[in-house]
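Quick note —
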Amino acid sequence: MILTERQWQGIRQTVARAGFCAVASVNADGSPHLTPIGSVWLEKQPGKAMLFQRFTRQLPENAQSDDRVCLLATRNDAWFWIKALLRGRFDAPPGVRIVARLGPPRPARPEEIARFHGRMSIFRWTRGFRLLWADLRVARDLSIESVLPVKIGPVSEHG
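Predicted structure written out below.
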């Protein structure tokens, strides 16, 4: 998959404004499984991403038999949606679907942890921050195969 720098920046912006992503994988019996993940990070280099594997019991198990995943990130900034509703069109896709392969678990690098903690710095003083994100040890790289914009009927046809 080849993306231009501009396309990749738009995708990164959408994921950053999503707050969290839902990551779909396939259970051993063929049924779908969704995992909410707030730690997906798209690198500056197009096509490269990573996530912290924390509180994800089913995702690592599913990846043993099938490493394919699909991430869904939809923008949750209110002004974006208000403008789209008033204008009757989106200026940019309201979300993206990212089809990727999940790399093997690896130790999280200190600079990755620091970068994520910086993104969540407003919450650093909270008990919830300590419980959720203070102990990020395992990361997984994502090798992106395709990116599909989310389209919502006629509101997406003009944007």
